[in-house]
Write a structure and sequence with these properties.
By secondary structure, the chain is an alpha/beta fold. The protein contains 19 helices and 21 strands. It has three domains: about 180 residues, FAD/NAD(P)-binding domain (3-Layer(bba) Sandwich); about 140 residues, FAD/NAD(P)-binding domain (3-Layer(bba) Sandwich); about 70 residues, BFD-like [2Fe-2S]-binding domain (Arc Repressor Mutant, subunit A, Orthogonal Bundle). Helix content is about 40%, strand content about 20%. Strands 1, 2, 3, 4, 5, 6 and 19 form a seven-stranded mixed β-sheet that branches. Strands 8-15-9-10-11 form a five-stranded parallel β-sheet.
Length: about 450
């Protein structure tokens, strides 16, 4: 066990976790931050401290701004445990983790989960072939190592990251064969009602317009409103096929990057038996918390995208608000100080969230791209369970994701359902003709991450 009980233990070193640590140290709290990576920054600011000027320029001002946050964290006095793979968080306020091949744990008075987001699964025909990656994963490769595609690439799906990566690749000199986006005319109509809020977030809209302008200047073919996507090839990706304006198209490429938004990484909050609700706007599970991110009255908080997708800036603000609540609970700040600080932070958060309803309406993934229509499509990649098998389970009485484990080990692989859980929930709900809220999710139990018997014994 690590010495002493700390005031605040934070899991995750992205914008929410770093900002919470800085805020907590401002009020004199002892803070330990655990993260699986060796350097802080999370997925958003991955590798920012080691990035050269060229990489920072390609990735843009928003990425480069992360260096100020990592610098402030390094100077705030919080303890950073790098390479820590957290496999259990308990309501007894103990955290179990692996570091350097050994099992360890620490105890805290309060805990903040800031485990961020993950790419939404995109289970379409051929999505498991070599040569198919998530756009977010491709971006992480560039942030981490500077790795770029050497051949023309296709980007397909929806969401702001799709255009951001296209913009960054063009800046880096990568050839883009096509951008195939699935946003339909009906999505624009649905998003129109949220336009006033989007206009208040005009800076984000301006960034989007700049990205589209660069695509046009580079004469990148853009197929808007595409449907029925499928990856071509048998041994590896050879291209992509799709419907566009009533015609079937095929574009050949050896690398296809897919993306249809991100969803909260909720494995830790599920393992804590926190209540979760199904969000019809974000199409995912979101943990129930109070205004500061606290689960029940447990002393455990959630901040950032693991509490619901809000973006980097709002994640940082949520982290600060959680830290203020902890500092107040530990009597480290006066009521007047808390009121003044919260007033500023709540105003920041409202401003940062203006554009979210617009983005959620505009980039809502198509049902057919979340719920596989073809029975042969793999859903659980770990245990090789197909959409057809899950439908069969449901037809003979399977009511929810937990029962699919008994029928065919679905969700029992190394990822523990993290990559297939949403798809399984929606697939069962569609087959049963009920809401995903009526179907539920896997019962997530520790260990959250794979751990050997030797590591557990240590």
């Amino acid at each position: 066990m690590d010495n002493d009980i700390v005031d605040l233990a934070i899991v995750g070193a992205g914008p929410a976790g770093l900002s919470a640590a800085i805020e907590a140290r401002r009020w004199g709290l002892s803070v330990v931050l655990l993260d699986e990576q060796n350097a802080v920054g999370g997925q958003i600011y991955r590798g920012v401290d080691a990035a050269n000027d060229r990489r920072r320029s390609v990735l843009g001002e928003d990425y480069a701004a992360g260096a100020a946050l990592t610098k402030a964290f390094a100077e705030c006095g919080a303890r950073h445990i790098a390479g820590a793979s957290v496999w259990n968080v308990g309501r007894d306020m103990k955290i179990n983790y692996l570091a350097q091949g050994c099992g360890r744990f620490l105890e805290a008075r309060h805990i903040l989960l800031a485990s961020g987001a993950m790419e939404r699964p995109f289970p379409l025909p051929g999505w498991t072939l070599p040569g198919v990656m998530g756009a977010g994963a491709a971006q992480i490769l560039y942030k981490s190592t500077g790795a770029l595609p050497t051949e023309p690439v296709i980007l397909a799906g929806c969401g702001p990251l799709l255009y951001l990566l296209a913009y960054q690749y063009l800046q880096a000199g990568v050839a883009i064969k096509a951008v195939i986006h699935t946003t339909q005319r009906s999505d624009y109509i649905r998003a129109a009602s949220h336009l006033p809020g989007a206009i208040r977030g005009w800076r984000d809209l301006r960034k989007g317009m700049r990205m589209l302008a660069l695509l046009r200047r580079n004469q990148v073919p853009v197929y808007a409103g595409a449907r029925d996507l499928s990856i071509l090839g048998t041994e590896r990706a050879e291209g992509i096929a799709f419907h566009h304006k009533g015609q079937r198209h095929r574009i050949d490429a050896s690398l296809v990057l897919l993306h249809q938004g991100v969803v909260p990484n909720t494995q830790l909050s599920w393992s804590l038996r926190a209540r979760h609700v199904w969000s019809e706007t974000q199409l995912c599970w979101i943990p129930e918390t109070d205004a500061y991110g606290q689960i029940d009255d447990s002393g455990i908080y959630i901040a950032g995208d693991s509490r619901g997708i809000v973006g980097a800036k709002a994640s940082a603000t949520q982290g600060r608000l959680a830290a203020v609540a902890v500092a107040s609970a530990l009597h480290r700040m006066e009521a007047s100080d808390r009121a003044a600080r919260e007033k500023v932070l709540h105003a920041d958060l409202r401003s940062q969230l203006h554009i979210r309803p617009f983005l959620e309406a505009l980039y809502r993934p198509l049902d057919a791209h979340r719920i596989p229509q073809q029975d042969s499509v793999l859903v659980c990649r770990c245990e090789e369970v197909t959409a057809g098998q899950i439908r069969q389970y449901t037809e003979v009485g399977c009511q929810g994701p937990n029962q699919t484990k008994a029928f065919g080990r679905c969700g029992m692989g190394p990822c523990q359902g993290r990559l297939c859980g949403l798809t399984v929930t929606e697939l069962i709900a569609q087959t049963r003709h009920v809401s995903p809220a009526d179907v539920g999710y896997y019962n997530i139990r520790p260990p959250i991450k794979p751990i050997t018997i030797g590591e557990l014994a240590s």
